[in-house]
Automatic annotation (TrEMBL):
GO terms for biological process: cobalamin biosynthetic process; methylation. This is Cobalt-factor II C20-methyltransferase. Keywords: Cobalamin biosynthesis, Methyltransferase, Transferase. Belongs to the precorrin methyltransferase family. Pathway: Cofactor biosynthesis; adenosylcobalamin biosynthesis.
């Protein structure tokens, strides 16, 4: 049978895809790695069908490897004998805990079939909330900015895990970026915040993103009005 990695989207239960909802309803057991993802899942299936997996909040590599092996050992028998799901906020393949589980299953339980059901990613939620248009042909880099990091280089970046916004902001501004922050966007849990002032979100929160764009970046965006004027002028010639 199969383990499904299901993306729940940014956190509002009605942003789960139709396919994701169907997999959740059909799975024998649905594993949730945390309380926020669990709160979304319980809007779609009874809590008694949800299995909890314990992942420590640590950067110790050996402790993390042990936790993922334990999780794989719990999930593998259920996925061999039936269908199981592992849920994650956002998309399972974008800055997600699901990748660790999938790789561990591949290494220790290769007999388990794994499929991914994509979800609305934090990037999509972020650009929508801020009204940021990523034009065709425009580059957009994804970076992690935990613990005050300020990655630089690309003209446009979406930064995940901005846990120290003032420190990150200082580095980005010094390198010539305009920055906007979004916290808990399209999430039912907590207050949504969109701001250009890092002091408003100085308190640590894992679910904070930033959009950084080079100040003065030139954008060539043709409009219907401009196209019409161009046709009119060409006709006069």
């Amino acid at each position: 049978m199969t383990l499904y990695g299901v993306g729940l989207g940014p956190g509002e239960s009605d942003l789960v895809t139709v396919r994701g909802k169907r997999v959740l309803e059909d799975a024998d057991v649905v594993y949730s790695p945390g309380r926020l993802s669990k709160s979304v899942v319980t809007d779609h299936i009874p809590e008694r069908r949800i299995g909890d997996l314990d992942f420590p909040m640590t950067r110790d590599p050996e402790e993390l490897r042990t936790a993922w092996r334990d999780a794989a050992s719990e999930v593998a028998p259920r996925a061999r004998d039936g269908d199981a799901a592992f849920v994650t906020l956002g998309d399972p393949n974008v800055y997600s805990t699901f990748g660790h589980l999938r790789r561990t299953l591949d290494a220790f339980h290769p007999e388990v079939d794994v499929e991914t059901v994509p979800g609305v990613s934090a990037v999509s939620a972020f650009t929508t909330a801020l009204g940021v248009e990523v034009d065709a042909g425009a580059g957009l880099a994804l970076r992690e900015a935990s613990q005050g990091k300020s990655p630089t280089g690309p003209d446009r970046m979406v930064l995940f895990k901005v846990t120290d916004a003032p420190a990150t902001h200082e580095g980005l501004v010094d390198d010539g970026y305009d920055v906007t922050y979004g916290r808990r966007l399209f999430m039912e849990q907590g207050d949504t915040t969109v701001t250009s002032d890092p002091e408003e979100i100085a308190e640590r929160d894992y679910y904070t993103l930033a959009y950084a764009e080079r100040a003065g970046l030139q954008k060539d965006r043709p409009t219907a009005f401009e196209d019409a004027r161009g046709d009119e002028v060409a006709g006069d010639d």
